[in-house]
Amino acid sequence: MLKPSGSPPPRDLLVGLGAADDAAVYRIGADVAIVETVDFFPPVVDDPWTWGAVAAVNAMSDVYAMGGEVMFALAIAGFPREMSKTIIAGVFRGGRDKVAEAGGVIAGGHTVVDAEPKYGLCVTGRVHPDRILIKGGLRAGDRLFLSKALGTGVITTAAKNGKASDDVLAGAIASMLRLNRVAAEVARDAGARGATDITGFGLLGHAGEMVKASRAGLAIAASRLPLLPGARELAEAGSFSGGMKRNRRYVDSVFGAALQIDRGIPDDLVSMLTEAETSGGLLFSVAPGQADSVIDAFGRRGEECWEIGSVLAEPVIRVTT
Fold this sequence. Notes:
The protein is α+β, with helices and mostly antiparallel strands. Helices cover about 35% and strands about 25% of the residues. The strands form 2 sheets. The protein has a 7-stranded mixed sheet, with helices on both faces. Strands 1-2-3-6-4-5 form a 6-stranded mixed sheet, with helices on one face. The longest helix is centred in the N-terminal third of the chain and has 18 residues. The chain is globular, with a radius of gyration of 19 Å.
């Protein structure tokens, strides 16, 4: 991880190395700032188009987590020399199609030969400097929302081991392919200030980043957490990735006694909260008076969103039944 150089950052670098967040933000005018992010990973599914599409949605999610809009992207990829050109073309088509759906365009990119295939995007977006969403934007008393169900990590791990049914995997893929565009727009319109997207560190890992940055706490109700169909059963069967335990160790080491998990919550569900997610939803908070408007706005746009908790004054993570 890059560290601050010690020199003061440029005045127009609104979000950078000084405070870890989902993307960098640089002001170029009084009413516009550039959002910049990069993300890539190995295949999470077998189908080339779907892999490219999921990777693109996942990369663009960081722009949405900052409250931004996607403008254009550069593709970054590494493929084995012997890989079929048909497969490679399918991956690039998937990324192109999802960027187009987001209202952007693939403007170029760079590819290298690599023994392990990888694909992703460097994404450029825009946001108004006064409407940036940041991890440090939580405010005590706010209501907490999540825009996608959990379980992609459990399901894709099970699928790699031949233990996930076709319909369960299809549900996870549909979730991973859904842009967080609506979530970002609704959060901005509701006056949200605190937001992040749920990806590799799992729900508790990313929630913990928000707690550290905001110096406020989170109360999360386990009974309100949305789970993808089939995810809970696979979790009960132990279909977790290696990242789950690493994420739990990280959260435990950072928060210690400030991580308060009700003993009545089953172990498999607790593990799901630290399981890595791919292309997960936005986690964001709004003032209490805006909570009902958030649910209504998602409904009007044909998408779901779940209220899962609230923001506390004390910097703890409290998971209750």
